[in-house]
Amino acid sequence: MRIIGIDPGSTVTGYGIVEQVNLRLCHVASGRVASPSQMLFHDRLKKIYKELEEVIACYKPEAMAVEDLFISRNIKSALKLGHARGAAMLAGLNADLTIAEYTPSEVKKALVGYGRAHKEQVQQMVRTLLCLGDLPESNTADALAVAICHLHCCQGVGKLTLGSSR
């Protein structure tokens, strides 16, 4: 099963594609959709949609897993994040992908075993699980973590073993 994980953001949206081959996790691709903050907001949303649409067409995942919103004190930031999530999800929906949503604490618990783990712990676990040489960038690591979380939830925690990069 091949999953695209999404870490949405209005200036940087991370994506990561992970595939389960037998019981192994394999890194397929990962990256970021970065938009300058001076770009008009609606143009940033269009860029997120278009670039993720291209990634989906290229790598053909079977499902999309998206990090859910967290509680934010800044309403304007939360709304912008919600719009970015919507643009990413629309790219998946238009490609007929099923969409799953996971809270940050669910993702951390699935990967690290503790729902309040630090970002660095998540990055290290993603690196270990996917046998990556370098520590992945934060947004990319979070997106890969969401994809891994979805695979764990689909297959049952503990059934997957260390994988290899593709």
List the helices and strands and how they pair.
Layout: E1 2-7, E2 12-21, E3 24-34, H1 41-59, E4 63-67, H2 75-94, E5 98-102, H3 104-112, H4 119-129, H5 138-155, E6 161-165
Parallel strand pairs: 1-4, 3-6, 4-5
Antiparallel strand pairs: 1-2, 2-3
Helix pairs in contact: 1-2, 3-5, 4-5
The value of Rg in angstroms is 15 Å
Q: Which strands sit side by side, in order, in the main sheet?
A: 5-4-1-2-3-6
Top CATH class? Alpha Beta
Residues in helix, %: 40-55%
Count of the separate structural domains? 1
Low-confidence stretches: 156-166
CATH homologous superfamily? Answer: Ribonuclease H-like superfamily/Ribonuclease H
According to DSSP, the number of beta strands is 6
- Span of the ends, CA to CA: 15 Å
Mean pLDDT across every amino acid position: 90
Could you tell me the CATH topology label.
Nucleotidyltransferase, domain 5
Give a short account of the largest sheet: 6 strands, mixed
What is the gist of this entry?
The protein has 166 residues and is α/β, with parallel strands linked by helices.
How does this model look, in words?
This protein has 166 residues and is α/β, with parallel strands linked by helices. It has one domain (2-165): Ribonuclease H-like superfamily/Ribonuclease H (Nucleotidyltransferase, domain 5), CATH 3.30.420.10. Helices cover 46% and strands 25% of the residues. A hairpin with a 2-residue loop joins β2 (12-21) and β3. The relative contact order is 0.24.
Features:
166 residues; Nucleotidyltransferase, domain 5; six-stranded mixed sheet; 25% strand; globular; disordered C terminus
